[in-house]
Amino acid sequence: MPKSLTEWLQHLETLHPTGIDLGLERVACVAERMGLFENPIAKQVVVVAGTNGKGSTLAIADAVARGHGLRVGTYSSPHLLRYNERVKIDGQEIADQPLIEGFERVERARLQAPEISLTYFEAGTLCALWCLAQESLDLAVLEIGLGGRLDAVNIIDADVAVVTTIAQDHASFLGTDISQIGLEKAGVFRPLRPAILGSESLPSSVADTAIALAAPVYRLGLAFSHSAGSEGNLLWCWHGLTSEGDTISLDALPDPGLPIDNAATALQALAMTGLVLTQKATQNALAQVQLPGRMQWLGQWCLDVGHNPHAAAYLARRLPAPPEGGRQWALIGMLNDKDADGVIAALAPRITDWVCVTLDGERGRKADELAKRITAQGGRVHCCADSPEAGVDALAPLLASKDRVLATGSFFTVAALLARPLPQAQ
């Protein structure tokens, strides 16, 4: 068997003929062999599905639960710089050794007769669940990777299930019908267990699925909501329900720097676990939430992993204008299964100059193909580069002190930039 975490991750890439193979039969069988169904992985489990906002909702739920004294474990994907980012215990990335032990457990179970083939994500999910189960957690918060109903994380029956938003993404796997995408995402709901709907514009198929399961539905704008505080945009208020059905309000909450819809949804999900939310602990937690790669500012550079039109539109609304006389650059690299035209259209009103970069790999997209789409919409492309790093080098001598740069389009684009120093004009 492999010895190091790096060797294990390389080994996982050889286990299955395709990178994505939706379905639960194989992964559930290996989980049963591992004993993952014998006991809950935590006292309470929350799963978070949706097109956008999953990472924000998970990060806020994690921070607020820990702020109330709970021992919390999380699983999310993909990672930016280190695989260890995918599993966190009390806010800290898991060490290599527990992951290695987890992969060994997965491999031994997988190789039992009859041998079962697993994708990289499936093996990683089983490893993460095993690691979390060793930690005596009060709460586990699990992010659904793709879809919901057939995602490997959905082998776990959650105590509370969240759907954040529904938009088109991963069209080659989930299709383009918003109602059908909603059905797939709502596959994380369970009979009689709370279903949290984190957007006011979800397709009816999401709530209909919950109702058919007799799952109590808590919808943003109805069961819970948020409003501006006395200090305008600087503070906000949350109004929701406790697990006993009583109304609760928390005032003077700080802006976590993430979508407030997601923050309100996270609070409602935690309330449904039975956690008694207090104003002081919630305020402190929201003031300290951090989520790399989501409107993350590094000097003149704003890094955001948004990769579909819905995320790009939110980003465009929140992106501050550069100082007077400065240009708003965009360094963009996208995968070929993403709606590049929709992303470009959403960002175009805010961008003066573009740099396109190539992302390599099976799903990669060439920079010149992106450039043609941008110019077709009237955008000005300064250059194309063979990689995100090369794009940074090409942009560096063009930057003025009043310029700002948005780096976006993919986790891969942002990860490449986080791994290196970014030039700052003097």
From TrEMBL:
Residues 293-411 form the Mur ligase C-terminal domain. It catalyses: 10-formyltetrahydrofolyl-(gamma-L-Glu)(n) + L-glutamate + ATP = 10-formyltetrahydrofolyl-(gamma-L-Glu)(n+1) + ADP + phosphate + H(+); (6S)-5,6,7,8-tetrahydrofolyl-(gamma-L-Glu)(n) + L-glutamate + ATP = (6S)-5,6,7,8-tetrahydrofolyl-(gamma-L-Glu)(n+1) + ADP + phosphate + H(+); 7,8-dihydropteroate + L-glutamate + ATP = 7,8-dihydrofolate + ADP + phosphate + H(+); (6R)-5,10-methylenetetrahydrofolyl-(gamma-L-Glu)(n) + L-glutamate + ATP = (6R)-5,10-methylenetetrahydrofolyl-(gamma-L-Glu)(n+1) + ADP + phosphate + H(+). GO terms for biological process: folic acid biosynthetic process; tetrahydrofolate biosynthetic process. It holds the Pfam family Mur_ligase_C. InterPro entries: Folylpolyglutamate_synth, Mur-like_cat_sf, Mur_ligase_C, Mur_ligase_C_dom_sf. Pathway: Cofactor biosynthesis; tetrahydrofolylpolyglutamate biosynthesis; Cofactor biosynthesis; tetrahydrofolate biosynthesis; 7,8-dihydrofolate from 2-amino-4-hydroxy-6-hydroxymethyl-7,8-dihydropteridine diphosphate and 4-aminobenzoate: step 2/2. Keywords: ATP-binding, Folate biosynthesis, Ligase, Magnesium, Metal-binding, Nucleotide-binding. GO terms for molecular function: ATP binding; dihydrofolate synthase activity; metal ion binding; tetrahydrofolylpolyglutamate synthase activity. Its EC number is 6.3.2.12, 6.3.2.17. GO terms for cellular component: cytoplasm. Belongs to the folylpolyglutamate synthase family. Functions in two distinct reactions of the de novo folate biosynthetic pathway. Catalyzes the addition of a glutamate residue to dihydropteroate (7,8-dihydropteroate or H2Pte) to form dihydrofolate (7,8-dihydrofolate monoglutamate or H2Pte-Glu). Also catalyzes successive additions of L-glutamate to tetrahydrofolate or 10-formyltetrahydrofolate or 5,10-methylenetetrahydrofolate, leading to folylpolyglutamate derivatives. NCBIfam families: folC (TIGR01499), PRK10846.1 (NF008101). This is Dihydrofolate synthase/folylpolyglutamate synthase.
